[in-house]
Amino acid sequence: MDNDASGFSRPDVALPDASRWLQAVRVLAPKVLYGLRLWIAVCLALYVAFWLELDNAYWAGTSAAIVCQPSVGASLRRGAARMIGTVVGAIAIVAITACFAQDRVAFLLSIAIWGSACAFAASVLRNSASYGAALAGFTAVIVAGDELGMTGGPSGDAFMLAVTRASEIGIGIVSATVVLASMDLGNARRRLVSELAALAAEISHRFGALLVQTDLTQADTRPARHALATRIVALSSLVDEALGEVSDLPYRVGTLRAATEGLFVALSGWRTAANCLEELQEEEKRQSATILQMYPAHLRWPLAKSLWSGHPDTLIDVCRGAGRSLVALPVDTPSLRLLADGIAQALRGLSQTAGALTALADPAHAVSYRRRLHWYRPDLLPPFIAAVRVLATLVAIELIWIATAWPNGAEAISFAAIGLILFSPREAQAYSEARAFTLGLALAVVLAATVRFAVLPGMETFVGLSIVIGCVLVPVGVLSLQAWQTSVFKSLAIFFCILLAPANIMTFDTVQYYNEGLAVVAGMGSAAIGFLLVPPLSPAARVSRILDATLRDFRRLAAGRRRDGLQEWERRAYRRLADMPSTVGAGQLARFVAMLSMGSTIIRLRRLARRFKMEAEIDTAFAAIAAGKSGTAISYLSELERELRKNSNGEVEVTTSLRACAGMRAALRTLTRYGGYLDERGNWSSWPP
After folding, report:
1. Are residues 128 and 211 in the same domain?
2. What is the mean pLDDT of the chain?
3. Does the keyword Membrane apply (predicted)?
């Protein structure tokens, strides 16, 4: 420490170093805590398995390592999914063995078919449900590997092996759950509420800034909406964690859906208002001042997040009241009507999110959202490709095993199934993940060999074994949370225990160990090769197929072949938006949002047309859209708008007609900008159902 001329020490030299050390400790502490939780969970699972004298106690430790996640909610959801998937996989392999006990070829083929079916289901489902389907697939293959002989043939021990393996895995799940519940209370609810509040605050503030700075264009605001939509889609993983951690949230799924849908509705209203502001005439711009001032002033505050996170209940009535005033506000032109309704729509979405935030922040708050089931058919080509990849790869490895009589071929099949089924839902990242896990397995083979043959022979107690395992798992757990080579260290943490293979009576056969190590690395490497030879759809192809499916539904809606309600149409579109790859381009996203908005406009206009006895005329215009004739539809809608404004009488009828004209004007704008895209696929009647 330096001294000044008076002899006193200068603290300003040491304080920055202390501050850096404190910051480093704050960053490192959660990672070290995770490493400690991982170590304790694995050791507890091994201890229980040893005490019960199970044959392969290391499966309990491996299951604990898989279930133990940095987030408590993710761990609990994954643990429940793993338990269900394990039981289903065990039942499946018992049934397969019973059906093909004397037929080796049918038995091996059935295993491959079951794995491919589970890969298909894992690619269709999402989050924990996807993980449970994957577990059902490779659990069956793992149990089958235990009962297969030198060249592949079922034995009569399938039932006991399935029970034993399910018991070992269950011990690992319970052990990890106990450790997590005792060492971490979790903060998923707080993080979910915080992120929802941050998104709502940013939308309300940025939208308010647009209404103040009316010279902003779509080009100025579209990137912000794109980024916000991406963040809203990313909420699904955080929602899944919260559902696993908080006991009351599974009964509030409707509340969670309402929160995210409200944000999407607000973005849609933002887009409508931005389009209107861009095209207002000079006189309309002067008249729009009254509309713009009705947007609540405190929603424009840069510090509005404190309101959204601390007192969302105070915003519910504010947003609803302003929205009702805007809907009832008399205006003179369709453009002003559309502007007022767009702002009201954004406020309706923000009010919905505020209500959901209030219910999430206060468990005692009454839930007013009903849980509804909505049919959604995902794109089945990516799951089909995943199923074909698993089937082809497993059959190829089985043939190689039979032809070469490889003693450890069963382990290779098991790890190939793990890699293929587990990473299939990752699609574009699947190959890189499988390759990283292969590298992590190779490192685990070397590290486990060092510990097994150089350290364990001198250990005689479980305490000594636990200390040795902790010296590996704690630093590896910390490294698995770093930004560099995360998947490699995650693989090392998961598979170290299974390669170390601790048992009540240890064996130290180096030849057998290296054969097993080669088999597991070759199996995971085969999974990586499978992803390379049968690649998933590229992100560009995924986006193209989602756009095509949305366009097909849009054409059917326009033609009257679908009679969706407004909420049903928008929820289906939001689900498709959630399936969009993160690399979707701004232009592609704009086309998707245009179809979403146009479909909503069609539904609203059909309702309004009944009041003016114009169902036939409006259906004629929409039929032209469905037939890929946007130019004809533009002519029809323009004529209908002129007739409607000309023949409207009375204040109520004028307001309703202005709203209908505003919808037609929005449809005309969309057709003018995106008519070429909507027409390029030809007549809807030639499309497959």
Report:
1. no
2. 80
3. yes
Instruction: Tell me the average pLDDT across 49-56.
Output: 84
CB under 8 Å to 671, separation ≥6 — which residues?
A: 598, 625, 630, 633, 634, 637, 678
63/73 Cα distance (integer angstroms): 17
- Per the structure, the complete domain to which residue 339 belongs is given by 188-361
Asked if the structure places residue 15 within a domain, the reply is no
Q: For position 376, what pLDDT does the model report?
A: 64
Distance from chain centroid for Cα 374: 18
| Helical (H) or strand (E) element with 546 | helix 539-559
Last residue of a domain, one of 533, 548, 568: 533
Indicate which CATH number applies to the domain containing 327.
Answer: 1.20.58
Q: What is the pLDDT of residue 131?
A: 81
Does 455 map to a domain? yes
> Tokens at residue 534, please?
């049968």
- Quote the number of domains for the chain: 3
Strand partners, 9: 3
Asked if 145 contacts 411 with a C-beta cutoff of 8 angstroms, the reply is yes
- Residue 446 sits in the same domain as residue 572: no
CB-based contact 274:214 (threshold 8 Å): no
Same domain, 321 and 397: no
Residues 213 and 346 reside in one and the same domain: yes
For 366-385, the pLDDT digits (tens) are 544 444 545 567 788 999 99
Q: What Å distances lie between residue 18 and 10, 13, 22, 334, 445, CA to CA?
A: 14, 10, 6, 64, 40
The per-residue pLDDT for range 264-311, each reduced to its tens digit, is: 888 888 888 888 888 777 787 888 888 888 888 878 766 666 778 777
**Residues facing 3 on adjacent strands:** 9
Q: Where does residue 655 rank: exposed (0-12), middle (13-18), buried (19+ CB within 10 A)? A: middle
Domain shared by 41 and 181, yes or no: yes
For 103-117, 157-171, 286-300, 655-669, which range has the lowest pLDDT when averaged over its residues?
A: 157-171
Of 361, 394, 415, which closes a domain? 361
The angle that helices 11-51 and 462-479 make with each other, rounded to 10 degrees, is 130
**pLDDT of 144-184, one tens digit each?**
877 665 545 555 566 777 788 778 888 888 888 788 777 66
Q: Is residue 8 part of a domain?
A: no
Per-residue burial over 423-461, b = 16 or more CB atoms within 10 Å of its CB, e = otherwise? bbbebbebbebbbbbbbbbbbbbebbbebbeeebeebee
Nearest residue to 38 via CA among 368, 481, 622? 481
- The sign of the dihedral angle between the CA atoms of 250, 252, 256, 258 is positive
Q: Assess whether 110 and 44 both reside in one domain.
A: yes
Whether residues 182 and 271 fall in one domain: no
CA distance 299 to 599: 29
Tell me how far CA of residue 549 lies from CA of 164, 543, 561, 677, 682, in angstroms: 46, 10, 15, 14, 14
CB 489 within 8 A of CB 402: no
**pLDDT at residue number 184:** 61
By the 8 A CB rule, do 236 and 127 touch? Answer: yes
166 and 154 assigned to the same domain: yes
pLDDT-wise least confident of 185-199, 397-411, 502-516: 185-199
Question: Any idea which residue has 């599974």 for tokens?
Answer: 250
Write out the two tokens for 211.
């209404």
Q: Which amino acid is at 7?
A: G
Q: Is the pTM of this model over 0.85?
A: no
Asked, for residue 19, whether it belongs to a domain, the answer is no
